[in-house]
Amino acid sequence: MSELVRRASQQLTELVRGELRLAQAEMKEKGKRYGKGGGLFGGAGIVGFLMLQALVATAIAALAVPLPVWAAALIVTAVLGVIAAVMALGGRKQVSRAAPPAPERTIENVKADVAEIKESAHR
Q1: Taking a C-beta distance cutoff of 8 angstroms, is the pair 50, 58 a contact?
Q2: Closest by Cα among 70, 46, 51, 49 to 60
Q3: Are 49 and 37 in contact (CB under 8 A)?
Q4: How many other C-beta atoms can be found within 10 angstroms of the C-beta atom of residue 60?
Q5: In a 10 Å sphere around its CB, with 0-12 CB exposed, 13-18 middle and 19+ buried, how is residue 59 labelled?
Q6: Could you say which DSSP state residue 123 is in?
Q7: For residue range 67-104, what is the model confidence (pLDDT) as tens digits?
Q8: How far apart are the first and last CA of the chain?
Q9: What is d(CA 123, CA 119) in angstroms, rounded to the nearest whole number?
Q10: Core vs surface per residue 18-52: b (16+ CB within 10 A) or e
């Protein structure tokens, strides 16, 4: 009987170790894939940024047909400035809504829970 228990214990240990090795190999493979995916997303972001720069140059070139180049560039710059200002104001508004960076409702709930526990302890 003791031999059976020893073998079962040994086999269980080997099984757990094998499963851990399998999990480690699987996570290593997934980590590589996440790394490659992140690199591709980064590359896509850079190429997308370059595309937007080319689009701005195209807009300037298109406006330069009826206008002088400097006027076309000034118009595109002003439009981009207005877009940036609107986005900055929207971002500022969202950040001010999030302040302070503490989970206020959770803190209030914890305080209420502590008060309830203290009251129950005094009974």
Answers
A1: no
A2: 70
A3: no
A4: 19
A5: middle
A6: -
A7: 999 999 999 999 999 999 999 999 999 988 877 777 77
A8: 55
A9: 7
A10: eeeeeeeeeeeeeeeeeeeeeeeeeeeeeeeeeee
Nearest to 63 by CA among 50, 76, 54: 76
Identify the pLDDT of residue 63. 96
Residue type for position 11: Q
Return the half-sphere exposure (C-beta side, CA atoms, 13 A cut-off) of residue 73: 5
Structure tokens at 79: 């439009």
Residue 25 one-letter amino acid: A
pLDDT of 25-74, one tens digit each?
A: 899 999 999 999 999 999 999 999 999 999 999 999 999 999 999 999 99
Residue that has been written with the tokens 């829970």 in this structure? 113
